[in-house]
Amino acid sequence: SAPATEPCPEAGRPPTxxxxxxxxxxxxxxxxxxxxxxxxxxxxLLQVGAVLTAAATFAIFCALSGSVYLFNDVWDQDADRRxxxxxxxxxxxxxxxxxxxxxxxxxxxxLALAAAFLIxxxxxxxxxxxxxxxxxxxxxxxxxxxxxxxxxxxxxVLRAIAxxxxxxxxxxxxxxxxxxxxxxxxxxxKRRHELMLLGEGAGDHRRILEEYSPxxxxxxxxxxTASTLIAYAIFATSADTAQRLGxxxxxxxxxxxxxxxxxxxxxxxxxxxxxxxxxxxxxxRPLLACVVxxxxxxxxxxxxxxGR
Length: 308
What we know:
The chain is mostly helical. Helix content is 68%, strand content 0%. α5 runs antiparallel to α6 and α7 crosses α8. The longest helix has 28 residues. The N and C termini lie far apart (81 Å).
């Protein structure tokens, strides 16, 4: 008789490891590119050791953010099953068990935090604070109006601080202000997208959406948009920035920031985008080109004679 064979996994279902990786949401890891701001604006882009350290820190935060996504998906699995998009996530769909997700998340977070402390204690402390903040967001803060978007912005600020600490460079107050305002812009745009996508039943999927309206969010976005542009213009043209960064021509990058924000607003209002900033960046070529040109121009101005 034919030898017995191992039972096959359910037809069409990817293996557990693949489901685990999908739940880490690698498509969202572009947010962690903010960690390289300290490397670039700290003047250490051409130092191999600093680049390697920044890359390691990027990997650490990808692991940390992924572990938090796993915890969040376990915590929200019942609500996600009623969401038109989130119901496809492996945990909400029942393809990945909560036990496997939490076990993997715990191990991954522990290893990442240990690696952060090995780089330096300050980075380890910020990494731990980042995880704590996002866990608090998952279980409580995302249900508090206005505090929810401020918490999201705080996660971006901690990324920027971690990137600077990793390569031992100071990060200026104006750059932190720009980071905070831009993060608020993205968070508010995401809330608006959710509200428009879910319509009158938005509160059934996420209670906090009952506290917002498209008009209120548009008002907040307008305030944050203007503040972001003003803050960046001051940062780019100030004498202090010229002295610290070694170039007085950073103002040449202002048009890229203007176009990038206006393009994002166009996608939010005209194309009903904004649910995932990372997805927009990856799929919208004009927006991606704008970001690449901004980074390239900053690098040329700071690291070549053209910026003097």
